[in-house]
Amino acid sequence: MLKKILVILFLIFFYGTCNAATTIQQQPLTLILDWFANPNHAPLFVAQQQGYFKQQGLDVKFIAPAGPSDPPKLVAAGKADLAITYQPQLVMQVAQGLPLVRIATLINTPLNCLAVKADSNIKTIADLKGKRIGYSTDGVDTAMLTAMLAQHHLTPKDVTLINVNYDLVQALLSGNVDAVTGVMRNFELIEMQLAGHPARAFLAEENGMPSYDELVIVTNKAEVNDPRLPRFLTALTLGTQYLEKHPEESWQLFAKNHPELNNELNHRAWFATLPYFASQPAAFDQTRYQNLALFLQQQGLIKTVPKVGDYAVKLGD
Amino acid sequence: MIYTRGIIVTLSLLLIWQLLVGILQLPIFILPGPLLVLKTLILQAPLIASQAWITILETLLGLFLATLFGCTLALTMAFFQPLRLWLLPILIISQALPTFAIAPLLVIWFGYGMASKIATTLLMLFFPIASSFFDGLKRTEHAWLDLAQTMNASRWNILWQIRVPAALPSLASGLRVATAAAPIGAIIGEWVGSSSGLGFLMLNANARMEIDLMFAVLLVIVVFGISLYFSVDKLLRRVIWWQAEKN
Amino acid sequence: MFPKRPLEPELASTSVGKVQMTLSTAPAISIQNAHLRYGEQVLFDDLTCHLPAGKTTCLLGPSGVGKSSLLRLIAGLGVTSGNRTAKEKIQIDQHDPSLIAYMAQTDLLMPWLSVLDNVLLGYRLRKESSPETRAHELLNQVGLGNAIKKYPAQLSGGMRQRVALVRTLMEERPVVLMDEPFSALDTITRLKLQKLAAELLANRTVLLITHDPLEALRLGHQILIMSGQPAKLEKLELSGTPPRSLTDEKLLRWQGELMERLT
Q1: How far is CA A13 from CA A18, B236, C250, in A?
Q2: How many domains does chain B have?
Q3: Rounded to a whole number, what is the distance in Å from the CA of B203 to chain A's nearest CA?
Q4: Rounded Cα distance, B20 and B32, in Å
């Protein structure tokens, strides 16, 4: 009788401490996406699907924001651990005093481009003179446009700029604008094709803008030494590698987990984005970061060029 | 007299704002303090002014058209009873449709110029004006209608000489409600897509993380809204002078 | 149309003497088979009464008996109140809607119109040319000569009811239906207006609803007492010419008898 009780007590104790041990190990981490979940975030979702975050003892929650300018603000205010943002915006945010530091890169090449309908009579940038151009994010989009136009001896005064607030494809399809900028070549271009109006794109880095990381992950400066972050990075890297090796499988699992995103557009975009992911999320190119900051200063978007080391680190060094 | 209280309330709100920022240690990019916002307002006054008149114009035109169409619909429903059941759903739907959801459609139809902003304002203000005026027209004192009937007046004359003036106080209530919300209609329209205006300015300021500018613009919008309300209120009191005497 | 600011009162001259009006001889009104029913409740059935030509008939009775409804039926107005649907029937000899003028218990003055515009309401509503001179004269006669440009909000209750009386007279209709026109006024004002109304309404066929037996005795050539459910009418013929003096002994005696009859 006594033995039975002791065994039961022991089992309860053992089971209890096991549970306690696992719950202590699963540390929560909030990451605010830049937009609603889409194929740009594939490495993150794959890492989660394959349990890499869990293996690292992290319980990562993805949150979709109200708009792309919110995530960095929330991290800067200490309301979230991580956020996805864009390298050019990051520089501007840092220049405005937000205490942010880039700790990982999802996409280490520009996705930004200017798009027109393929059947429009705008064949070169020079043809944009006198036309209406829609954009989403003032500052970066307009900086890219200015650089593009400058190469063809045009200035923003030669065009009409219209802020269309993220309804880029709609704006172009409706004919209310002649061109849109701030469009992602791996997504909106496919969207236009599926809508029956293929687009012609003018790529940012081919038209006067220095190369940069389209999607980066940032954290609050005060948290840069948080022990969760290197583990996060490890899991993310594994996720990226798995995605590279098993793209179709990863898509299937993603589609199953997010049935509302299981459509033709996302399916095609998933595969179109594969070449753009950074295979080494932790790494970044110092020179490129410096060049972009200088470019933004030239465009008058920032006053002083912040030191790269102040807002970008490679964890694990 | 009323202005003293208004000033006290405004100053108190500004003080609370400053205290909130101080006590909660809110960073500038979340909520800038009133002094910083006022400084930005002064520094950027030319820019803000250049965009303000566009939003003001959109608001006023939207309000004017909403009044015109709203009153026309109300009069039509009041005079042509059979049409009432056909037109009433239109009225209700215009209110049930959330403006921010319809705004993108309006922009597609009307383009990115002022027309779409006037349209969103019109859509938003249409219901309060039309329904309050119609309500007033429906509720004309029966005794007056009886009197007019014994005087062998035509329905048309009864409408214009008795029912309309009697319904003006009701219309005034609707107009006041509409006026308070009027600037919002224009701003929502601008947020969908625009190349000018205070809403446009806010979008850009937000994208550039210039939150102090965004709040400066917000302040201007609030001041505009309040001024518009008081102006319309004063105008209504002059036109419907007999209601004041009743009180 | 209506946005006029109240002007300073002008001192108008008061004119003395009665206004000469040309009226076609006021007709008698004969009512037969009046029937009014709300659902199961029958207010009156197969009611008959006769309003003699050029004379004042006062209709007396407790509230709710159907006096106002009967008057409204004669005036050609609807009797549906709230959500009670009515079944009504009435046969009126000599019935012509353009012969009837109506005065209610409340003055029904339009607050956005001046006194002058209010008394000319009928002409404005019919888009006819307004006989302003006669309006001025009548207003003077009732003692409102210097209120012509004022607005209803500036007048006392008695003054407003006087304006309503002038408005009714301005219609120049030979038949006048009045529903307790003086009951909302204080006693002194009421007595004055009764005298005024009787003088100005002489030679018209008048049906006056009242709950005040004294008023009925002062103003009526005959009194109809309406009582019971379904209501019946009891006629009382009176001698003498209204307005009868309050000091008249006969009046006081009749009042006693009438009160007995009513209670």
Answers
A1: 8, 78, 113
A2: 1
A3: 8
A4: 10
Tell me: pLDDT of C18 over 80. no
* Chain A: closest CA distance from residue B148 (Å): 55
Test B200 with A139 for CB contact under 8 angstroms: no
For the domain covering A112-206, report its CATH number: 3.40.190.10
The reply to whether B163 falls in a domain is yes
In a 10 Å sphere around its CB, with 0-12 CB exposed, 13-18 middle and 19+ buried, how is residue B30 labelled?
middle
- 8 Å CB contact between C66 and C36: yes
Q: Which chains touch C (3 or more CB pairs under 8 A)?
A: B
Number of Cα atoms under 13 Å in the Cβ half of residue A268: 12
Report the domain count for chain C.
1
The list of chain B residues with pLDDT below 70 reads: 1-2, 244-247
In chain C the beta strands, taken as DSSP E runs, fall at 29-38, 41-51, 56-60, 86-93, 100-103, 175-179, 205-210, 222-227, 232-237
Where would I find the beta strands (DSSP E) of A112-234?
112-117, 132-135, 160-163, 179-184, 199-203, 215-220
Residue C140 lies in a domain: no
Instruction: Say if C229 falls within a structural domain.
Output: yes
Mean pLDDT, to the nearest integer, of C176-188? 90
Tens-digit pLDDT profile for residues B169-185: 999 999 999 999 999 99
Contact: C102, B147; criterion CB under 8 Å:
yes
CB A69 within 8 A of CB B207: yes
- Domain extent for C211: 29-110+174-262
In a domain, B105, yes or no: yes
Domain assignment present for C115: no
CB < 8 Å to B205, chain A? 138
Q: Which of B88, B69, B67, B90 is nearest to B78 (CA)?
A: B88
Task: Give the CATH number for residue C99.
Answer: 3.40.50.300
In this structure, is residue B28 part of a structural domain?
no
Whether the pLDDT of residue C188 is over 70: the answer is yes
B residues 228-247 closer than 8 Å to C (CB): 238-239, 241-243, 245-246
Domain that holds residue B172: 34-246
Where do the structural domains in chain A lie, given as residue ranges?
Answer: 27-109+213-311, 112-206
Which of chain A's residues have a Cβ under 8 Å away from the Cβ of B214? none
Rounded to whole angstroms, the Cα distance separating A121 from C55 reads 93
Q: Residue B18 falls within a domain, yes or no?
A: no
Instruction: Please report residues of A whose CB lies closer than 8 A to that of B206.
Output: 69
A interface residues, B as partner, C-beta within 8 Å: 69, 73, 76-77, 89, 92-93, 96-98, 132, 134, 136-140, 160-165, 167, 170-171, 174, 176-177, 301
Structure-model confidence comparison of residues C128 and A15, the more confident one: C128
For residue C245, name the pLDDT band (cuts at 50, 70, 90): confident
Q: Please name the residue of chain B whose CA is at the shortest distance from the CA of residue C171.
A: B151
- pTM attached to this predicted model: 0.83
Contact A295, A147 (CB under 8 A): yes
pLDDT band at C17 (very low <50, low <70, confident <90, very high): very low
CB-based contact B150 C110, cutoff 8 Å: no
Classify residue A271 by burial, with Cβ atoms within 10 Å: 0-12, 13-18, 19+. Answer: middle
Residues B47-74: b if buried by 16+ CB within 10 A, e if exposed? ebeebbebbbebbbbbbebbbebbbebb
At A154 the pLDDT is 94
Instruction: Identify the closest residue of chain A to B206 by CA–CA distance.
Output: A69
Query: pLDDT per residue over A78-135, tens digit each?
Result: 999 999 999 999 999 999 999 999 999 999 999 999 999 999 999 999 999 999 999 9
CB contact under 8 A, B209 and A132: no
With cut-offs at 50, 70 and 90, classify the pLDDT of residue A24. low
* CATH number attached to the domain at A27-109+213-311: 3.40.190.10
What is the predicted ipTM? 0.83
